[in-house]
């Protein structure tokens, strides 16, 4: 699996968030997209996952020598992000059943394993609306990590997690991120220190020199 960006830029109204991004993301590698608040990390991730188009340039997805159209890339990726909602009126089991209507479970993982991973064996019928913000975040992460997709995208993965939750996230990375194309948007080292590539948004903010 690979994602190639050619001269990608994005602006909102007159403001360029980034421009001239030329970058290749490939399977088995992990990438940290880094930058301060408001620098454009989530915007770039949304372009990479096909939910937002670039203002300039081209994004190409390739899987085993075939090109995947942008509108079909969601089938090949899992995303956990603060702006991705869980369905509050569902119970935990309903949410898991719903999610896995669209994605396959990782081989060797069952829905019961996900409940166990969340340490919620005693309350599978608990409604999501009664989950704490940290539990909701753990649920989003568990669903993303345990879906069988070649691409894993994580935007601010430890938001709302306490120290134990951060350790739990790091354990998920060790167990389930190997061999995938993993992309993490972050400005906290503990979220991305396992990544072997770093993309700094600031490098793509420089304006062309005008005479
Ligand atoms: N739909 C939109 N319309 C106008 N401006 C937008 C839109 N989406 C994002 N922006 C602006 O683009 C810039 C980059 O936002 P983005 O959310 O990508 O940053 P970020 O690096 O992910 O920030 P944070 O670390 O705070 O999550 C911000 O100035 C934001 O206000």
From TrEMBL:
GO terms for molecular function: ATP binding; ATP hydrolysis activity. The keyword rRNA-binding does not apply. It comes from the Bacteria. SUPFAM superfamilies: P-loop containing nucleoside triphosphate hydrolases. Pfam families: ABC_tran (PF00005). Residues 3-211 form the ABC transporter domain. Keywords: ATP-binding, Nucleotide-binding, Transport. This is ATP-binding cassette domain-containing protein. The lineage of its organism: Bacteria, Pseudomonadati, Bacteroidota, Sphingobacteriia, Sphingobacteriales.
